[in-house]
Design brief:
By secondary structure, this protein is of the alpha/beta class. It has one domain: Rossmann fold (3-Layer(aba) Sandwich), CATH 3.40.50. It is 49% helix and 12% strand. It has nine helices and five strands; from the N terminus they run E-H-H-E-H-H-E-H-H-E-H-E-H-H. A five-stranded parallel sheet has the order 2-1-3-4-5, sandwiched between helices. Helix 7 links the parallel strand 4 and strand 5. The longest helix has 21 residues. The chain is globular. The relative contact order is 0.15.
């Protein structure tokens, strides 16, 4: 049985029960696990350790307890938007340069401890909404930098990279951003389904190879 670990911030957390390892929240992690468990019975165990509010520095702090000690065979990471939003709203974010440096340290240590692990890097994304429109140019510019840094990490370590920004932009081409994101940062039910589908495509290719 393979263990699949979801890592990230509130988008991954999606209101999971922190005290229950079987709780996957109500977002893309739950949707993906539901589909794979239905069609690949007894092949997977899913764990969600996404934490609301996390930046890359917070994920790094949790590296032993919430990644290495769990010994996952596969892991996805969706992180980056809080590194921007915390800086713009609370002056306690993470610069793109530091983001990439800490992300690199995280992957280096995880792959050293778990050399057979397969890692999927999900691209951080942003949309127009109540949390982002007032400072849209700054949000858009800085999240784009985090997305580029995430892609750099995937390339550096030869990991799977799942683009999401273009997918959300295309989905909201009619201008109905709220259908896909409730506030510009957190996906709606449809948005979570979009993330699930893109991640599942990558996982399926991995399993079939």
């Amino acid at each position: 049985m393979k263990t699949f670990l979801f890592q990230g911030d509130s988008i991954t957390d999606a209101n999971r029960d922190d005290d229950n390892d079987d709780s996957l929240g109500c977002g893309y992690a739950f949707l993906l696990a539901s589909d794979l468990l239905k069609n690949k019975k007894d092949e997977f165990r899913f764990i969600n350790r996404g934490n609301s509010g996390d930046r890359i520095t917070d994920v790094y702090v949790r590296i032993k307890e919430d990644i290495i000690n769990l010994k996952p065979d596969m892991m996805s990471i969706l992180i980056g938007v809080n590194d921007v939003s915390h800086e713009l709203t609370q002056n306690c974010g993470v610069t793109p340069e530091k983001f990439e440096k800490i992300y690199s340290m995280l992957i280096e240590e995880v792959t050293e401890a778990l050399p057979e692990i397969k890692i999927f890097i999900l691209e951080p994304f942003i949309m127009k909404g109540i949390h982002t429109e007032a400072r849209w140019d700054e949000f858009s510019c800085e999240v784009h930098k985090m997305a580029k840094a995430s892609a750099n990490i995937a390339k550096k370590f030869n990991l799977y990279f799942i683009p999401l920004q273009d997918k959300f932009d295309a989905a909201a081409a009619d201008g109905n951003h709220r259908y896909w994101s409730v506030d510009g940062i957190h996906p709606s039910a449809a948005g979570h389904q979009l993330i699930k589908e893109e991640l599942q495509k990558a996982i399926t290719k991995t399993l079939d190879s």
